[in-house]
Amino acid sequence: MSSVKKLDPKTEATFACVQKARNSTLLMLELQKAALVVSKQYAKLVESELALVTALNNIGQQQGGDIGDGYQKVADVINTEAGKQAVLARSLQEEIALYIGRTEKGDRMEIDQFESDYKKVRGAVKAQIDKAEQQTKKAGKKGAAALQQSIQDLNDKIKEGENIKSDRLKHVVVIDRKKNCTLLGNFYTLMTHDNALHNEASAKIGSLLDPLKALAGAQATIPDKIQELVTDAQRTFVAVQADDNYNDSYSEDLNTYSPRLGASSSQSSPPPPPFASYSSTTDHSYSNENSFGTVVALYSYDGQQDGDLPFYEGDYIELTAEDDGSGWMSGTCNGRSGVFPSSYVQMDTDDRCEQSPTNDVDLLRLESLTCALDKFVGARALKNGRPLILAAPD
């Protein structure tokens, strides 16, 4: 049989707690090392995320409009995430790793001191109990009263020893728990910050999903400011809208030298360019004091803008203002008044025969129109791959 005396339960539990506390300090050092590694990784992640935020903001500022706003909202969400990672990195370093570094040595010294004190107290209590037992044995020879007193003293020593053991057991448990509870409290603070930042980032992400989805599907959408410029350009450079196709047959009016559109065919061609620019201050009136003459529509014009004059191919338009170099005229047709492209019409032949030009400006204007139409007809013929054949003069 072993000669080692078995310890009482309280003493055994106390030494087990001492060993547990001593082992936990070693585990704490491992936790400290791991926390520092993760903290450094979070710090590197934050650095990368902030670089991404800067790049997104730069693109957003360069793009502007709804696209730029989308980039900047994404950057804001990532910046929030970076802030959360920064809090985790700082908390892991300060509240966990540094805390363990500050307290580990003190905890180890405290448990070592407790174990040393406990052994001394335990030895002193044991010596007192042993002494009381010896006195009890001797008191039996001195009579019943002496024996009774000696037994009472022995019981008091034993009870005092048990109280000391209980106090020391509770004390060692508190030493170990105090360290761990404080550390868990630090983790609680870390998780509280992390949860708040997570909720903030989650809310931002939730509010950003629908706008990002809408932008992803709006590839053909033109911003309002650009649309205004496009609309203005469409008004200035309006497209030809013909009711029917037409051919390349032209005839010449020897009196006015103005090509006229012939019969319809399967080929279509663009309208001639606007009249050549001339001074709007020059007097270009005809003999009719109340009218600038009549023009006939070469092509249909739908007049999509307010103030435009719509008409169909072949309509006659009474002019109220001639082309001042802008490429636009104004007149009345079918009971409506408005402006229209001068390249869509030509002077009515009969009207122009009656109203001969009264000054050199009108002659220059007619020559400019003739030259423009000649170029248009020649380009049209070359495009179709056949020579231009003008009708013989009457």
Automatic annotation (TrEMBL):
<dbReference type="InterPro" id="IPR046982">
    <property type="entry name" value="BIN3/RVS161-like"/>
</dbReference>
<dbReference type="GO" id="GO:0008289">
    <property type="term" value="F:lipid binding"/>
</dbReference>
<feature type="compositionally biased region" description="Polar residues">
    <location>
        <begin position="248"/>
        <end position="257"/>
    </location>
</feature>
<feature type="domain" description="SH3">
    <location>
        <begin position="290"/>
        <end position="350"/>
    </location>
</feature>
<dbReference type="GO" id="GO:0031097">
    <property type="term" value="C:medial cortex"/>
</dbReference>
<keyword id="KW-0728">SH3 domain</keyword>
<dbReference type="GO" id="GO:0051666">
    <property type="term" value="P:actin cortical patch localization"/>
</dbReference>
<dbReference type="InterPro" id="IPR036028">
    <property type="entry name" value="SH3-like_dom_sf"/>
</dbReference>
<dbReference type="GO" id="GO:1990528">
    <property type="term" value="C:Rvs161p-Rvs167p complex"/>
</dbReference>
<dbReference type="GO" id="GO:0097320">
    <property type="term" value="P:plasma membrane tubulation"/>
</dbReference>
<dbReference type="Pfam" id="PF14604">
    <property type="entry name" value="SH3_9"/>
</dbReference>
<feature type="compositionally biased region" description="Low complexity">
    <location>
        <begin position="258"/>
        <end position="268"/>
    </location>
</feature>
<feature type="region of interest" description="Disordered">
    <location>
        <begin position="248"/>
        <end position="283"/>
    </location>
</feature>
<dbReference type="InterPro" id="IPR001452">
    <property type="entry name" value="SH3_domain"/>
</dbReference>
<dbReference type="InterPro" id="IPR027267">
    <property type="entry name" value="AH/BAR_dom_sf"/>
</dbReference>
<dbReference type="GO" id="GO:0006897">
    <property type="term" value="P:endocytosis"/>
</dbReference>
<dbReference type="GO" id="GO:0043332">
    <property type="term" value="C:mating projection tip"/>
</dbReference>
<dbReference type="GO" id="GO:0015629">
    <property type="term" value="C:actin cytoskeleton"/>
</dbReference>
<protein>
    <recommendedName>
        <fullName>SH3 domain-containing protein</fullName>
    </recommendedName>
</protein>
